[in-house]
Fold:
Amino acid sequence: MLEYVFFSILNSLVLGMLFFMLSSGLTLIFSMMGVLNFAHASFYMLGAYFGYQITNMIGFWPALIVAPLLVGALGALVERYGLRTVHKYGHVAELLFTVGLFYIIEESINLIWGRNAVTYPIPAVLDFPLFTFFSTQFSAYRMFMLLISVGMFVGLYLVLTRTRIGLIIQAALTHPDGVSALGHNVPAVFMMVFGGGSALAGLAGVIGGIFLITEPAMAATLGPIVFVVIVVGGMGSLTGAFVASLLLAAIQTFAVGIEYSLTDLLAVFGLQIDAGGLLGDIWRIQLAHTGPILPYLFMVLMLMFRPKGLMGKRES
Amino acid sequence: MKYYLQQCGIWLAAALVCAVLPLVFSSGFALSMLSQMGIAIIFALSYNMLLGQGGMLSFGHAVYYGLGGFLAMHAINMVGDGVLPLPLELLPLAGGLGGVVAGLIFGWLSTDRAGTTFALISLGIGELIAASALMLPSFFGGEEGISADRMVDTTLTGFGFGQQIEVFYLIAAWMLVCIFLMFLQTKTPLGRVANAVRDNPERAAFIGYNVRWVRTLQFTLAAFFAGIAGGLFAINYEIITAETIGAIPSGSVLMMTYIGGVGHFFGPILGAVLVTFMQLSLANITHAWLLYFGLLFVGMILWAPNGLAGIIMLHQPVWKAGLTKRLLPAYSLIALSSLVLFLGAMTLIEINYHLSLSINPDEPMSLFGITFRAQSPLAWIVAVTLIIVGFYFFRKTQHVVRRSWNEVTQMMKGGR
Structure:
């Protein structure tokens, strides 16, 4: 039991930090520009594929730096030449633009790297078990992921609180019009935030592509989860996104090991259920299998009862 | 009086077209395409009841389509077993009923706020239902879905529905009825108030309307028609899987509606016809059809945000003023440059697809009847040059079009 809890905590930390790397950029973009960026997870996917390609050509360490930068530059271009053009047609058009971008990026990945998953292995330097606790091993690569994401977290925190541009971004989060009235070039800040957020997603892709899987469907799998994170955390709140990332990762990791169903729950109270019929399965679903739906259930409930999210300051 | 005659004329003409089309295009492929178009038209129009008229951007509209389909499929099986005495022609109503029930529940839960909150809730509900579909195999049939035999004994018309053309006529009849009802709905007080709520919910609430209830009713009606489309889907394919509920049909109905144009009633019809046609015919020609589709979608958002219907309605006054031919030179210029740009992009895309997906990339490929090796630098140079030249002239001719458009509007304002 201790072993299970210990490793679940470690694994949910690793996964949660990965979620945070994705959601921090998205929540910044959303709260500043009001654009729900459907293509954000696509930038994550681009990061993974760029990382894979550069790893094959040069090596993993250059890829760790170059791939996020490339993705970030691409993101900035998308903002400058795509979103800014669509901006005048309103938020719905902006949102749909990112939906279209999602399709285009997914198909371009198909076009260049094929429809199957690519082999993007753990770099040899990091491919060893770091320590063994009871009988389970914890790989060095996971610890490396954790280090990178904590480093990114600290870096982001310092940039946002200690630099001038960070202060402008913080101000633009809550009062974009006021910031622009003070004479700051808000469109340029937008472009930078979009590029920076995309670069973070790209970084998450480079290390997450190895950890999870690098395939054309990876954006569609992770995209909705990231939305859940920013909704639950609260729009525009980085702390909220951080807490929500860890929370969701913990829910997903822990639920996998719990094999109770509603029938078992009712049995505790002495009730016996023997349901047949078309929807009788509901009573027999084990909690372990509800992993895919828990985040969405969480999001829908949160939006209905507390649309501000856990730590958000305003509604969308 | 004249207005009503004109209106009747349009509906009669539509009915006539539906009756004649399958006789003209009688191949099996064309018939199944026409059937799909009919279903897609109902689905897209029902989606526009949300997006166009209610201002609710939904990412989970396929939930009601899919649930309607599953319910209708179970109903067909029950009819086949003799449990349910419902003629096959009325079976889509079972789907519609499923849509109404689900729409009322989820609509009430999600319509407290519009905008992004609504969009996210609809996304969440969509993912939730799609994920639960795989967990409830007795109702949704698990991975392989459920199937039924539509050739049941209980019918109204005496059709056996063994042939696709009979199914098409059933779909066409339902389509006409649904289009008519949805059109009438835009004229009802509810339809009008839904417009008001879309444009300014605060004011609508001040006048005394319960904004949430208006949205819920609009949502439920949209779900009803989506359910009918789902029921027709069940009859048409005789098999339905959990994919029908998922994100892919939700996304494609959004694209259909938007490409067609959300601002006009007939927009989604155009979008549904065009997108279904592209989905079926392009998928036969090239593997890259989704990419072309995505490019078309993004292009429409960038340059024609009001969709096909918007473009048509923009030109109606010009057509009436008899000035269309003044626009033609500029339009043909931009068409030419877009064609060059498109040819270049297409060559590049097809070369890449050949390299990454074909069994043997060394084999020569053929495009427009020209056979060449995908690795040859000449092909790449030609493609890239076409793209650069096309893009340059595209940007140039955009100005030409704008100028001649301004001239024409000036003439319409002051000329007469």
